Amino acid sequence: MRLSNTGRWSLAALVVVAALIVAIWPRGDSEETGSRSYADYGVPTAAPQERASGDTPEALAGVRAEAALSACPAPAPGAVPAGPLAGIGLECLSDGGRIDVGAALAGKPALVNLWAYWCGPCARELPALQEYAQRAGDAVTVLTVHQDPKEGNALSALTEYGVHLPGVQDGTGKIAAAVGAPNVLPVTVLVRADGTVAGVLPVPFESADQIADAVREKLGVSV
């Protein structure tokens, strides 16, 4: 039996519709255990601003006080900022003031952790990072870097995690760009006392011991 012209067009339309259904049908995702990219969470890969417009000092006052974060590091006497982080000015999460990250870290080995409030692996890693920081004491400076404009969400998340590490707000990803970090979270950046980068590690740590091993390997500091 021969199809009429109308029949042919109807058949062609059905084929096109079927192809579209196949193309957009949701696929099941396997369980993720490693670092996740911004796209995995539906987050834009380029944050448009350092801090969300609604996160004014007045709006953040309550959550900032509740988070009770440690003060950001201060420059060591006589230390000269150098390396890719020198000159990067960001807001300190603990009090809303601004610091020069390179200057604040100069003169001492540092661990800089990139994270975001929506990152599941980050939520598991941050308590281990705090345990490591308590163990390291003054031997290594530990600084967290929030990689999303929603600063209020970051402060609330840290309160929920019971993490009080010093941190900065970096919604535009200045530090990630400066060190060439990949587009995943979490990322740990290990910085030598002279400001040069010893390692960029795009892997989530599960324990303080794992973090200590990485610091010992890359920075030569054992704690």
UniProtKB/TrEMBL annotation:
In what residue span(s) does the Thioredoxin domain sit?
59-220
Q: Please tell me one Gene Ontology term that the record gives under cellular component.
A: cell envelope
Q: Name one GO biological process term.
A: cytochrome complex assembly
Q: Which UniProt keywords apply?
A: Cytochrome c-type biogenesis, Disulfide bond, Isomerase, Redox-active center, Signal-anchor, Transmembrane
Q: Which intervals of the chain are annotated as region Disordered?
A: 30-54
Its subcellular locations are: Cell envelope
Q: Which domain of life is it from?
A: Bacteria
The family database entries (CDD domains) matched by this protein are listed as: TlpA_like_family
InterPro entries from the entry?
Redoxin (IPR013740), Thioredoxin-like_sf (IPR036249), Thioredoxin_CS (IPR017937), Thioredoxin_domain (IPR013766), Thioredoxin_ResA/DsbE_sf (IPR050553)
* PROSITE patterns reported for this sequence: THIOREDOXIN_1, THIOREDOXIN_2
GO molecular function annotations of the record: isomerase activity; oxidoreductase activity
Q: What is this protein called?
A: Thiol-disulfide isomerase or thioredoxin
